[in-house]
Amino acid sequence: MTGEFETIRELFAPLAHPEWGRGLLDDVAVVPSRPGYDLILTKDALVEGVHFLPDDPLDTVAQKLLRVNLSDLAAKGAEPFGYLLASGWSPRCGWAEREEFVLGLARDQATYGVMLLGGDTVATPGPATFSVTMMGWTPRDAVVGRNGARAGDMVFVTGHVGDGRLGLMAAQGRLNLEPERLDALIEHYRRPTPQSAFAPVIRELATASVDVSDGLIADIGHIATASGVRIDLDLEQTPTSLAGRAWLDKRTDVQDALLQLATGGDDYELAFTVRPEDEARLRRLAEQALVRVTALGQVSEGSGVTVRHLGVPVSVQTPGWTHG
Amino acid sequence: MTGEFETIRELFAPLAHPEWGRGLLDDVAVVPSRPGYDLILTKDALVEGVHFLPDDPLDTVAQKLLRVNLSDLAAKGAEPFGYLLASGWSPRCGWAEREEFVLGLARDQATYGVMLLGGDTVATPGPATFSVTMMGWTPRDAVVGRNGARAGDMVFVTGHVGDGRLGLMAAQGRLNLEPERLDALIEHYRRPTPQSAFAPVIRELATASVDVSDGLIADIGHIATASGVRIDLDLEQTPTSLAGRAWLDKRTDVQDALLQLATGGDDYELAFTVRPEDEARLRRLAEQALVRVTALGQVSEGSGVTVRHLGVPVSVQTPGWTHG
After folding, report:
1. What is the rounded CA–CA span in Å between residue B93 and residue B63?
2. Burial classification of residue B233, based on how many CB atoms lie within 10 Å of its CB (0-12 exposed, 13-18 middle, 19 or more buried)
3. Which of A311, A314, B198, B314 gets the most CB atoms within 10 Å of its CB?
4. Are residues A42 and B29, on separate chains, in Cβ contact within 8 Å?
5. Residue B322: its pLDDT value, please?
6. How many CA atoms lie within 13 A of A119 on its CB side?
């Protein structure tokens, strides 16, 4: 029993928004207007073998799918409420695998306060392929873009940088670290944690914001380009996890190792700019939210991103990478 | 040059909504609330080899992708305004193929008044896979569901039924008809025409409505189930195109042939119910819109769909089909 109608009725319908999802029986979702608010939409796709590994458990694939989209909304200061899902099931996705996938969705729906609104489910002879359109609200005209950074602003990043790249290496068995560090990295690769709870802080204080998906340096480069400013980054400030530090400790070329972390991507942290007079409030709100924030750069007149290590400029060949 | 960043910047950005799409540079789209209106969303995916053929020109694939989604909105009486697109490019999708795909999008954006709002573009080692989230508006609480049909209502369908199935057979070279009939059917398979201009009529007059994607009988069955009514269909009323009639003329078992047309799917016509007192106005509005409408059934108390041919009940094994 892996028909698409059964999948919708038995597995997806229980996840649906009770009103707006219309029982997943009407081909459409209906979202009433919310006067005074803007609707924020983002859409990310994951392909087996490209964005997740063929042996990743499907509940974690479902969670990663929601989380990479939730991360985009968090970076814009938006509060998520629902999503549409297109599932392209590969031949390996039998009923048990679909149940496992839906279990992951249900878990994250509870964690992040979102509900399924609709979508499509099809079989594909190729790799499993999923795409989500995630939706959220911001108060009118309050969305945080990439283009608001101004000379004098400080650059911050939440959490740790580099676990995305290290996590992929760990999941592929290409990393030599203690088992608990490897486990933590694999967990991060499979199930990154979006900074959704930090969205209100971003909305209040950030002048520009992105999530770190392409790589810290590349994503901060997006802010510099969109804002028409220059950003100087201090590589030695790159915040690392316990696992990241354990990996760094084994490197002989620390600068090269830090560059690998800062260009790795898939971190799903938030990189953002803040006016210096807002630094104290940012740090207070971050402490209340139990989110680590690290200052690692400055905005000035000019263009592009300059990376320094201990004050010395570093040449960056590839600021980030793309799955494409 | 087939990187995803270049694809976004060179090919997709010119299609973007000038404000709400944010130049496709911000990971999100921002749609202001429209007080007094509901947002209607639908999401359909197409997979190469499943929903379109590997040798279908990519401009027609792009148009089919938009049109199957536009058809869902038309059935709900919604006016489309924009869409998000996830493109999973297979290895055959080089730059020229992507340009061709985008040409198809541009053509239909002009025809149907929609603009690109955002999305994702990735490479896939498998078959090309696309999904669209299409958005439209209806005046508040005016969306037409599947569940409003009442005993006494008449059942109508727009246009012709069966060209979806015949078109697939023609595209696969499995049909023996005159060349111009084959061409028309292949064109319909590749590039169905959604009844978008009929959406205001649906909104004004239909008590329930679906688009014919699974098959006429199956889709009318969805209305019967959701509305808790019985629907009797008169198979001989099934409206057919010139090509459909040419095909029918060669069949010895006309009843079986009509059943094939009425269970074929992929027609993207609208099947809907109307109160008998609204029939005259429906026919007048349809004539003004140059849309053929055919009465082919009645709603009564009870449940399920009964198919009759020249007054005699017909047993239907499989009311529709699914791509799986």
Report:
1. 16
2. buried
3. B198
4. yes
5. 43
6. 28
Complex confidence, ipTM: 0.92
- Tell me which residue range forms the domain holding B269: 154-314
A65 near A47, Cβ under 8 Å?
A: no
| CA neighbor of B242 nearest in space, from B310, B292, B190 | B292
Separation in Å, CA B200 to CA B203, B210, B290: 5, 14, 14
Quick one: B161 and B308 in the same domain?
yes
* Contact: A50, B26; criterion CB under 8 Å: no
CATH code: domain of residue B54 = 3.30.1330.10
Q: What is the mean pLDDT of chain A?
A: 95
> What distances in angstroms separate CA B216 from CA A27, A216, B242, B265, B282, one per listed residue?
15, 52, 18, 7, 20
Edge-first strand order for the sheet with B37-47 is A29-32, B37-47, B129-139, B79-89, B115-123
**CA B252, chain centre distance (Å):** 30
Mutate to test the interface with B, among A34, A124, A202, A227 (most CBs of B within 10 A): A124
Comparing alpha-carbon positions, the chain A residue that sits nearest to B6 is: A324
Q: Which amino acid is at A181?
A: R
Element (H, E) at A115: strand A115-123
B225, with CB counted inside 10 A (0-12, 13-18, 19+), is middle
pLDDT of residue A1: 52
Distance of alpha carbon B29 from alpha carbon B21, whole angstroms? 5
Query: What is the spatial distance between Cα A33 and Cα B34, in angstroms, rounded to a whole number?
Result: 6
Spatial contact of B274 and B206, defined as CB atoms under 8 Å apart: yes
Q: What is the CA radius of gyration of chain A?
A: 20
Q: Are residues B184 and B213 in the same domain?
A: yes
Question: Starting at the edge strand that comes first in sequence, how are the strands of the sheet with A154-158 ordered?
Answer: A206-211, A270-274, A154-158, A293-300, A230-234, A304-309, A312-314
Q: Give the span between the Cα atoms of A274 and A152, in whole angstroms.
A: 9
Position B319 confidence tier, pLDDT thresholds 50, 70, 90: confident
Beta-strand relationship, A230-234 and A304-309: parallel
Q: pLDDT per residue over B172-226, tens digit each?
A: 999 999 999 999 999 999 999 999 999 999 999 999 999 999 999 999 999 999 9
For residue A212, is it within any domain? yes
Mutate one of B124, B225, B272 to test the A interface: name it (highest A CB count within 10 A): B124
In whole angstroms, give the CA distance from residue B200 to residue B75: 10
Distance between CA atoms of residues A16 and B206, nearest Å:
26
* Whether the predicted pLDDT of B235 surpasses 60: yes
Using a CB-CB cut-off of 8 Å, the residues of chain B touching A124 are 47, 50, 126-127, 129
**Are the C-beta atoms of B263 and B216 separated by less than 8 Å?**
yes
Closest CB from A44, A119, A226 relative to B43: A119
Burial tier of B252 (Cβ tally within 10 Å: 0-12, 13-18, 19+): exposed
Q: Can you tell me the distance from the alpha carbon of A68 to that of A85, in angstroms, rounded to the nearest whole number?
A: 13
Q: Is residue A145 part of a domain?
A: no
pLDDT for B294 equals 98
Indicate if B56 and B122 belong to the same structural domain.
yes
> pTM for the whole thing?
0.94
